[in-house]
Amino acid sequence: MGHNEFLYPIIFGVVTGTIIRILMLKTDYRQYPPHLHGRIIHLALGFIAAGLGTIMVPSILKEEYTAITFLTLAASQFRDVRNMERTTLQQLDTFELVGRGNTYIEGIAVAFEGRNYLVILSSFFTTGFYIVFNIWAGLICAIVCFFICRKLMAGNRLKDLVDIEYSAPRFEGPGLYVGDIYIMNIGLPDRQKEILENGMGFILKPKNFNASITIANLGQRQAILYDVSVALGVYRDSGTPALVPLAKRNLKTGTLGVFILPQTKDIDKAIQILANVPALENAIRIPSKTLSQERQES
Amino acid sequence: MDTYITNKIMAVITTASNVSPGGAPVFKCQSKDDLYSITANLEAILDGIAHALNDEIYIIVKH
């Protein structure tokens, strides 16, 4: 059976794109996407994205320009991915003991949409290099694309923004403190005892002004609490609203006091997890950049 | 959609005699132990947090 001259490049591009999608779909301690079915949805969409990116090259070469306009259809398709992720996660969030918060959810949703576009571009370039040069050029392009995707995907971590210190929670009257940061008012002595037994406190000192604004974001704080609660468990149940992990801010210094109620009290592990909490895209603020730009302009 | 009342004082528990009922029900107690046990119960029942305003006045707030 005779076949199209573009058959092998197309297969190559689709396979590369799909593999890149698989490699970007890491399931880590945050457990997302959690199960086989969630993963299959993303793999299927990654496959479609790879197909779209690949087909672009032969369409251009064959001067079938209308085919390329179908990409706009694809874009709206992948915007739905974001909506799908957002809706699912928001639904699930109401049943979490410690929720992710909308900022975190939006970050995840955007990442899922963005990854599909990365797959489209990777497949496009890989197929292009295969057709224009040869399979080896295609292969090298695929590897380069993989590293670029990985670089684009990896954001900042909390350890890039703050220094983390352990500080045992304490009570002054009914006021719960971590370091010198007031967390909340706990009235009952029994509750106080429970909190001192099970609670842990951490002080996050921002390394610069930008970091201080970023960690002040409520969504970022919720993300910190969520990640720690997932990794270390949480000493909490429905109907015990007093046992709630909280992060409060020292207004003067911008230092963040994080109070958590883990199931396993392991300081080193907790610091490690805090250090690896992602700095959320939507929370990152860089006011110093604007300031320095203004200075240059004036 | 469910509607919740939040940030509201659900109950006041006190051993002080000068606290009078207003917007929230007031539970007057004779002793400290009484105060703690009633507060603990109400906290669980009302699904709120018990806050101490001072040694004699406790409030349950739903957040």
Give a verbal description of the structure:
The complex is a heterodimer of chains A (298) and B (63). In chain A, helix 9 packs across helix 10. Chain A has 2 domains: 148 residues, no CATH class; 131 residues. Chain A is of the alpha+beta class and 298 residues long. Chain A has a 4-stranded antiparallel sheet. A 3-stranded antiparallel sheet of chain A has the order 2-3-4, covered by helices on one side. Chain B has 63 residues and is of the alpha+beta class. Chain B has one domain. In chain B, strands 2-1-4-3 form a 4-stranded mixed sheet, with helices on one face. In chain B, strand 3 and strand 4 form a beta hairpin. Chain B is globular. Chain B starts with 7 loop residues before the first strand and ends with a strand. The model of chain B has no long low-confidence stretch (mean pLDDT 88). Chains A and B meet through helix 7 of A and helix 1, strand 3 and strand 4 of B.
What's a concise summary of this model?
With 298 residues, chain A is an alpha+beta fold.
Q: Kindly state the percentage of residues in helix of chain B.
A: 10-25%
* CA-atom Rg of chain B in angstroms: 12 Å
Q: What number is the mean pLDDT of chain B?
A: 88
Greatest contact between two chains: A-B, 14 and 15 residues
Main sheet summary of chain A: 4 strands, antiparallel
Structural class of chain B: alpha+beta
Regions of chain B with pLDDT < 50 over 5+ consecutive residues? none
Give the overall shape of chain B, derived from the CA principal axes. Answer: globular
Write the layout of secondary structure elements.
The complex is a heterodimer of chains A (298) and B (63).
Chain A: H1 7-24, H2 36-61, H3 65-93, H4 102-132, H5 135-153, H6 158-161, E1 162-166, E2 169-172, E3 175-178, E4 181-185, H7 189-198, E5 200-206, H8 209-216, H9 218-232, E6 246-249, E7 256-260, H10 267-275, H11 287-297
Antiparallel strand pairs in A: 1-5, 2-3, 3-4, 5-7, 6-7
Helix pairs in contact in A: 1-2, 1-4, 1-5, 2-3, 2-4, 3-4, 4-5, 9-10
Chain B: E1 8-14, E2 26-28, H1 32-46, E3 49-52, E4 57-62
Parallel strand pairs in B: 1-2
Antiparallel strand pairs in B: 1-4, 3-4
